[in-house]
Task: structure prediction
Amino acid sequence: MVKITDVAKAAGVSPSTVSHVLNGKRPISQRTRERVLKAIKDLNYVPNAYAQAMKSDRTGIIGFIATEITDQFSNMIIQGVESVFVPSGDHLLFVSGSEFSEDLGKTLKFLGSRRLDGAIISQSITESRRKLNFKLPDIPLISVNFDFGSDIPSVVLNNYKSGWDAAFHLAQKGCHRVGAIGGPQDRVASNDRLMGFHNGVEEFGLVMPQQEPIYSSFGFEGGVQGMESLLNQSLSLDGIFCANDYIASGAMYRATTEGIQIPDQLKVIGFDNRDFSSFTSQDITTFDQPLYDMGRIAARHLMEKIRDGRDIPLQTILSSRLIARGSTQSLSCSGS
Result:
């Protein structure tokens, strides 16, 4: 069995330093902490969780709240979180929002009744829920991929810039008359993307002739219905930005049933870089979110708060990466 003295020897530090890294009782330099955590991982050292809790106020348990634990987004964020907490011997307590009917207040109340060191929130929110109206548990919290617009620190994506980048990409591809299909009307991230797209369209001299915003579900059928609405308006569009890849896929399907050729007559951009977007019959130009990095950064901030008492930045903003694929890759757009 690997002992704490074995870890100390491998890391070139004293056993007490290893203990301080594990229980967060004293400040430890980042370089020393990383050396100790690497030795812990290499030796597969597992601290005695009960003994750790008895010697400190920490339990080594971190709450993780997600809208849907099995969702691809949550899985990538979780991997990033685990890359920080697992090597240090901490454990994640997973809570699905569906267990509490998506009521974040009840979910947080449940976590507050447990003896946790802190919690990470990765639950989707609507515009009406940006401002929290419920009591927060007395533990460190940080949100990933969603900004509550409150005192809860967050690691988020710059959705506005992503929308702007979508307009820039269509302009680069020679498009002139463009449209957009958003997600549900009350979804914060989708609305931020649409706002960035609208401003980019104006800045790059494109025309957006649709009469009003088109909102849809985040599913394939939402894209079909959104495209149907655009077709009914006879707008002669040559470029479309969709709030996610499912919508983009549905929009492309409906367009092709009308004989519209993609990308020669219509260029389509999605969002999220879902698995299917790269291997469907018509692969989708989309945006890849740095979900793993978002989880890793959030976990690092939370760990520093728990162990060293460092303040967590109120907001950390990351950018998405556009991946150009077949749905926009041609020499020029027609239909202007």
Q: What stands out?
A: The domain at 159-288 is CATH 3.40.50.2300 (Rossmann fold). Residues 291-308 form the longest helix (18 residues).
